[in-house]
Amino acid sequence: MQALTVERGSGRPTLRELPRPEPGPGEALVRTLRVGVDATDADVLAGAHGRFPEDEEYMILGHEAVGVVESAPADSELAAGQPVVPTVRRRAGAGEDGALDMAAPEDCLERGIAGAHGFMAEYFTSPVETLVPVPRAVAPAAFLVEPVSVVEKALSVATASRSAVDWSLDSAFVLGAGSLGLVGLAALADRGVDPLYCLDRRERPDPAVDIVERLGATYVDGRETPVTAFAERHDPVDLLVEATGHAPHAVEAVSALAPGGVAALLGLPDSDRQEVDLGRLHRDLVMYNRALVGSVNAGVRHYRRAVETLVAFPAWLRDRLAADVFAVTDYEAAFDARADGGQGRPLKTAVEFDTL
Amino acid sequence: MQALTVERGSGRPTLRELPRPEPGPGEALVRTLRVGVDATDADVLAGAHGRFPEDEEYMILGHEAVGVVESAPADSELAAGQPVVPTVRRRAGAGEDGALDMAAPEDCLERGIAGAHGFMAEYFTSPVETLVPVPRAVAPAAFLVEPVSVVEKALSVATASRSAVDWSLDSAFVLGAGSLGLVGLAALADRGVDPLYCLDRRERPDPAVDIVERLGATYVDGRETPVTAFAERHDPVDLLVEATGHAPHAVEAVSALAPGGVAALLGLPDSDRQEVDLGRLHRDLVMYNRALVGSVNAGVRHYRRAVETLVAFPAWLRDRLAADVFAVTDYEAAFDARADGGQGRPLKTAVEFDTL
Fold first, then answer.
1. B344 touches chain A (CB under 8 A)
2. Which residue on chain A is closest to B270 by alpha carbon?
3. Hey, is B327 helix, strand or coil?
4. Fewer Cβ in 10 A, N or C end of chain B?
């Protein structure tokens, strides 16, 4: 079968012919439909994130997949023909008990990222309990389930973080109108959160800004209104979702929160030394009962909720985010596209291995 | 009646003769027993925190009180002779709906702190719903209920913040062995949290360090093991409670947390500009699913829980923290004592207005 891989030190994806994998006990064989590309893939290619499978000279790329069950163990609930999305994390060795999505990353394997082959191949195998069914109608866009699951977990953690206090999620501010920010915004719009704001630094006309506004949110141009000025110009919000990976946003987020508000951080920035008023940060958190919660990865329950959210998205949004899908033979375009929704650029890319 | 007040600009407490207050509709008249002194009182005296009641040239001090109901409305559940602890916050004007302890401080009055007279007088009045009953046996130490309520709210918020994820409160690290840190440590010991650690910068022998160890906790000398080195020498913890008001601790706390851990911040430091690696802070929060929660003040439910916690404290601890109580005539000693538990110094002071 064909597989998209990265070799040690190459920095570029390579198309490679590999044997079709054999499912082990408890595993299903999945025929891959589409696999999304994101910033983590770029970091993996650059060698800046993750690690190769042990004793391997290459790693199959890709962690945002949707496929169709080809075969599954007789005692599983998965039937051949069922579209499914695989989760990313796997236990490393015997591993620890407890939820994988809460484990330290160094104690986990992550398919297509850290120590385990990914899903960018015509077939992959995975334990049946890691495969989340998706309805056929949304299967072509279901490579978005993985990023939506990351948002679902963050919303779950952020909401729970306020469960002991007087708080309701009426208003929210998403930092970043990349594909993660946009699915976060859409998940909040689906929950009826209003008003909604989304910050980025984009020149109109811009397709991402169009989506922000079509979702009923207010676009905030960070060049005119930085995060720290948000609360002067708009009402401070109950929830902020950071999806920029811009390090100062972790601290600046606090200033945009209403009393009792929470900021969910999703980005993984590089080191960035800056002078900060730590006294003010500390006091602003305490005096106004605010919270900062970091969130990474997602568990099966978040994937299940993400499938529901993807189904609830307006069809135009699913279509728009799944518009730039490239054939395997054209894989370089999927990786090389500056997929940020800038004028004439795709919002999100994926590689297609097969169709339903 | 006698009252301890601060006059505008004086910076010092003054004993003043005032008329006994008349309870309004729905209010009880309370005969004051004891009122604790804390760092907030020092800030109020210095003019660094809070504000005077409108149109008043003085403010009655004190927010950590215990008293005895002298008279209460016939339809209330409070009977004369019942020891009670008053909450601190009151609605400012018509105020907003919602929990007072979650409101912005500028939207509240705080008795003895911001815009409302405190409890350092022979009598005070307060709405019956703000008076929390305490058993007679612990009444002499019940000026500690207010600081314990602050800890109870923080523990409630911190625990709730992890309710959506795989987490249990097995280990904890308290920063600061002042009276707030010690009651926090004792509240955690009462919950069976083990191991427990407490950081301060004290020379042995020291009464606060003795209490830390008598509570079964490990004393961590911050001069030898700063917060940032904690996780190298001990296992990282599920919960950290910051009770130092040292600004860098808000950020350093993250490094002492296990994956999925939470730090509860209680301090209110002054501005403190420092160079910080914001990328690392951001990544350390996200990659390990960690949370930072600020918490201030407390609601009636936290006071009720604090009464239970105070009752559950070992008697020696209640006695030790209530050992340095000064007569009204000796009020200057209560305020002037460097109440930090250093060798020969009290751990905590209070002023006594009357006995049960």
1. no
2. A279
3. strand
4. C
Nearest CA of chain A to the CA of B21: how many Å? Answer: 31
Q: Is there a contact between B356 and B138 (Cβ–Cβ < 8 Å)?
A: no
| Contact (CB<8Å) A273/B274 | no
Q: Cis link prior to A83 (omega < 30° from 0)?
A: no
Comparing alpha-carbon positions, the chain A residue that sits nearest to B293 is A291
CB B221 within 8 A of CB B198: no
Single-letter code of the amino acid located at B272: D
Kindly give, in sequence order, each residue whose CB lies less than 8 Å from that of residue B23, ignoring residues fewer than 6 positions away. Answer: B29, B71, B125
Q: From the list A161, A276, A295, which residue is nearest B286 (CB)?
A: A295
Reported ipTM: the value is: 0.96
Tens-place pLDDT, residues B102-134: 999 999 999 999 999 999 999 999 999 999 999
Do A240 and A175 meet the contact criterion of CB atoms below 8 Å apart? yes
Burial class of residue A326, CB neighbours in 10 A (0-12, 13-18, 19+): buried
Q: Per-residue pLDDT tens for A32-44?
A: 999 999 999 999 9
Q: Do A296 and B279 touch (CB under 8 A)?
A: no
Phi, psi of B180 (to 5 degrees): -65, -45
pTM for the full predicted model: 0.96
Dist CA A32 CA A28 (whole Å): 12
Q: Is B57 exposed, middle or buried (0-12, 13-18, 19+ CB in 10 A)?
A: exposed
- Residue in this structure with the two tokens 């990282």, named with its chain if needed: B236
CB under 8 Å to B263, separation ≥6 — which residues?
B158, B239, B240, B241, B242, B250, B253, B254, B256, B257, B290, B291, B292, B293
- Alpha-carbon distance of B334 to B120, in angstroms, equals 12
Q: Could you give the CA distance from residue A297 to residue A152 in angstroms, rounded to a whole number?
A: 10
| Residues sharing a CB contact under 8 Å with residue B329, sequence separation 6 or more, in sequence order | none
Number of helices and strands in chain B (H, E): 10, 20
Task: Say which residue the tokens 């909604």 belong to.
Answer: A196
At A97, the amino acid letter reads D
Closest by Cβ to B290, choosing from A166, A282, A294: A294
